[in-house]
């Protein structure tokens, strides 16, 4: 039997646990770092993660640990913490690994940095890749077919190392070298998924949701262009693909958060004491600031930010609908003077 390299996964929420299970599906050893001691205990004793992914039975070759030092000597580490703690967790690694594959979706509050910039500083010398796409954790854990963008900052040479380590029969990575684009797709779609949830919660119908997806995608493209992302990256799995998935299903925590807001729940109540992460709620304020600083119009992102800040969802949607009529494409704006 082929001797596979051991892979490490940092973060045993729903997504880290699902990725560990997918990676272990060829019989390889996976070391999974978990933040909570009870998660370490449950995975090692019962091969389950009742806190974050109760539906999955986990492979016995997944070994959980609470010690980041246990990842020392593993060349490939997938990083799957919430975005806001990624830098802190990586800075606690005793030694930077050869390859870091970032799977978290968000922008750092305060600094406005994408995760690859955060990781570069926290883990100097590691080659950085970004894995992102339409990937509900429970489906990946169940072995259902899934495709992702694997954007390799280390180019084709890094892809040659990572693709065989990560691909499985039902898990297909597609190569890209656009790390910035892959990250922007995942971060922005979370905020747009909240918007679609709000529209659903308000009962505004499927036409409105489709309009939000299309106009939200324009915002993603504009922001991506301002930050140097390739448009083609954002039209792929990690942009449009993930946007369509999370804007259409209450399996998305971001969509579900938006739906509850649309139904009238208060943002403060919904965010208090929540165990699972809805990254869009953390990304919206920093994304709205970045867009404003760079002069990128992102009215849907601004609307989500306002609702998360306590504004009435119904009033904010009414404001969005009363904006002046304009050209759909910026390239046509000059024709009608708008
Ligand atoms: N769940 C999914 O289907 C997918 C999630 N993602 C992304 O993966 C990242 C992680 O999300 P999930 O695994 O879903 O999380 P989750 O919502 O299932 O669990 C929360 C996670 O945060 C960890 N955590 C809480 N406080 C922490 C701290 N101070 N330090 C370190 N870890 C802490 C918990 O241990 C747990 O791993 C997010 O950025 C998310 O956007 C990406 C693709 C799919
Ligand atoms: O990113 C995801 C699927 O690709 C998961 O979305 P949620 O974080 O909204 O559940």
Automatic annotation (TrEMBL):
NADPH binds at residues 15, 52, 105, 137, 253, 277, 279. It catalyses: sn-glycerol 3-phosphate + NADP(+) = dihydroxyacetone phosphate + NADPH + H(+); sn-glycerol 3-phosphate + NAD(+) = dihydroxyacetone phosphate + NADH + H(+). Keywords: Cytoplasm, Lipid biosynthesis, Lipid metabolism, NAD, NADP, Nucleotide-binding, Oxidoreductase, Phospholipid biosynthesis, Phospholipid metabolism. Residues 178-312 form the Glycerol-3-phosphate dehydrogenase NAD-dependent C-terminal domain. GO terms for cellular component: cytosol. One of its GO terms (molecular function) is glycerol-3-phosphate dehydrogenase (NAD+) activity. It is found in: Cytoplasm. It comes from the Bacteria. HAMAP family: NAD_Glyc3P_dehydrog. Catalyzes the reduction of the glycolytic intermediate dihydroxyacetone phosphate (DHAP) to sn-glycerol 3-phosphate (G3P), the key precursor for phospholipid synthesis. This is Glycerol-3-phosphate dehydrogenase [NAD(P)+]. It comes from Erythrobacter dokdonensis DSW-74. The lineage of its organism: Bacteria, Pseudomonadati, Pseudomonadota, Alphaproteobacteria, Sphingomonadales.
């Amino acid at each position: 039997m082929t001797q596979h390299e051991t892979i490490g996964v940092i973060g045993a929420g729903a997504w880290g646990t699902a990725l560990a299970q997918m990676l272990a599906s060829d019989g390889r050893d996976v070391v999974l770092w978990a933040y909570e001691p009870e998660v370490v205990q449950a995975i090692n004793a019962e091969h389950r993660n009742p806190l974050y992914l109760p539906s999955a039975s986990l492979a016995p070759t997944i070994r959980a640990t609470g010690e980041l030092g246990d990842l020392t000597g593993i060349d490939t580490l997938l990083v799957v913490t919430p975005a806001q703690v990624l830098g802190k967790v990586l800075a606690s690694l005793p030694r930077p690994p050869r390859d870091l594959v970032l799977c978290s979706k968000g922008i750092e509050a305060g600094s406005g940095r994408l995760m690859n910039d955060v990781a570069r500083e926290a883990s100097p010398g590691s080659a950085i890749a970004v894995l992102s796409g339409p990937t509900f954790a429970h489906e990946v854990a169940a072995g259902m077919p899934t495709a992702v963008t694997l954007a390799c900052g280390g180019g084709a040479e890094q892809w040659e190392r990572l693709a065989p380590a990560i691909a499985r029969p039902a898990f297909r990575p597609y190569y890209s070298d656009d790390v910035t684009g892959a990250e922007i797709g995942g971060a922005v779609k979370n905020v747009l998924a909240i918007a679609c949830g709000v529209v659903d919660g308000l009962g505004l119908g499927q036409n409105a949701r489709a309009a939000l997806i299309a106009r939200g995608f324009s915002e993603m493209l504009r922001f991506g262009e301002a930050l140097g992302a390739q448009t083609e990256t954002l039209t792929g799995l990690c942009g449009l693909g993930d946007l369509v998935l999370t804007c259409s299903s209450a399996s998305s925590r971001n969509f579900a958060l938006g739906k509850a807001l649309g139904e009238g729940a208060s943002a403060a109540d919904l965010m208090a004491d929540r165990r699972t992460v809805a990254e869009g709620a953390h990304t919206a304020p920093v994304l709205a600031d970045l867009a404003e600083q760079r002069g990128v119009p992102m009215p849907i992102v601004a609307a989500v930010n306002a609702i998360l800040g306590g504004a009435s969802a119904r009033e904010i949607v009414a404001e969005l609908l009363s904006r002046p009529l304009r050209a759909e494409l910026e390239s046509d704006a000059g024709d009608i003077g708008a």
